[in-house]
């Protein structure tokens, strides 16, 4: 694991054009397909996601998705920093967001920010690339209207998967 952390420190150093040392790493829990860590460095904290590389394009797709969400300036999502691989591991590094206590009006603010995110529109619904929800691939081919996209790209694939697994 030390070799992996050395590699990540080198990648962060190249990204920020300064020497980065990982001072501490603590595993954090909450997901089910990746190992996740809080990295403390001389530059600050980062969030690290590790996967054994079974889905080699998962983190590049997540990186792109986080960039798209971040660019809307509507809701705070972790700033993606970099992604890569080392031996059998793939990794994604983002801004670390410290969990805090929710403000009194957290849910109202969250709902308003989420609504603002969904007001960012395009002529069609979808993305230029497919991605994942967990380890399941999501098809994002453009279509119109929204209901057709949701039914054909989200609900039907999940229903077909459930039916095929029940045989």
Q: Can you put this structure into words, describing what you see?
A:
The protein has 167 residues and is an alpha+beta fold. The protein folds into two domains: 2-95, 2-Layer Sandwich (Phosphorylase Kinase, domain 1), CATH 3.30.200; 121-165, no CATH class. Helices cover 37% and strands 25% of the residues. The protein contains four helices and seven strands, in the order αβββαββαββα. It has helices at residues 2-16, 58-71, 106-118, 146-165; strands at 22-28, 35-41, 44-51, 80-86, 89-95, 131-133, 136-138. The strands form two sheets. The chain has a five-stranded antiparallel beta sheet with strand order 1-2-3-5-4, sandwiched between helices. A two-stranded antiparallel sheet has the order 6-7. A hairpin with a 6-residue loop joins strand 1 and strand 2 (35-41). The longest helix is centred in the last third of the chain and has 20 residues, at 146-165. The protein is globular. The N and C termini lie far apart (41 Å).
CATH superfamily of the largest domain: Phosphorylase Kinase, domain 1
Query: So what's the overall shape?
Result: globular
Strand content: 25-35%
CATH topology of the largest domain: Phosphorylase Kinase, domain 1
Side by side, the strands of the main sheet go 1-2-3-5-4
Low-confidence stretches: none
Described by strand count, sense and barrel closure, the largest sheet is: 5 strands, antiparallel
Radius of gyration in whole Å, from Cα?
18 Å
Helix content: 25-40%
Question: How many beta-strand segments?
Answer: 7
End-to-end distance, in Å? 41 Å
Question: Any idea how many domains?
Answer: 2
Q: So, CATH architecture of the largest domain?
A: 2-Layer Sandwich
